Amino acid sequence: MGLDLRVKKMEVRSLAIPDVKLITPRRFGDDRGYFEQTYHQDDYKAAGIDAEFVQDNHSKSVAGVLRGLHYQRNNPQAKLVSVLSGAVFDVAVDLRQSSPYYGQWVGAELSSENGHQLFVPAGFAHGFLVLSEEVNFYYKCDAFYTPGDEVCIRWDDTDLAIEWPLSGQPSISDKDSLGTFLADISADKLFD
Fold this sequence. Notes:
Blueprint: E1 11-14, E2 21-24, E3 27-30, E4 33-36, H1 41-46, E5 55-62, E6 66-72, E7 79-85, E8 87-94, E9 105-111, E10 117-120, E11 124-130, E12 134-141, E13 150-152, H2 174-177
Antiparallel strand pairs: 1-2, 2-10, 3-4, 5-12, 6-11, 6-13, 7-10, 7-12, 8-9, 8-11
């Protein structure tokens, strides 16, 4: 049995904050596995995602790890995030003060099984919680990581009230444990 060549279009869906997009790339599969094109600049531009990615990152984490909520203020990054193996609950928080969605969050489960990606525009904080035993998390950024420019918002900020699918306390880094509550971040460290 050969590769299934039925063409399925890439699906792009806006979430409750419309600038955050849930993307399901085309996947061609059969009983041997599948082939998936994870990024094609022209297709993404046609879908309204015209970020020019300059850096790719890959992280590996174990069950219960929560990373985030991170953003860069002076060198903001749009991100296209996906999971190579495992599953996460991925979150984006709108930090654009002029946005009607300021201080609100959206989340989606991304996994190697569902093949979903999340496009997180610049002006958002981003984080994820590992749902599987292990995850390989992959993301493209449209700006370079700038040491010293990163801001961390607490994952458990009660004003944000993110509904993390947790049972117990997550495993977070020392740096993330020192995160700031959104209400305590000065306007000049947010976005217009």
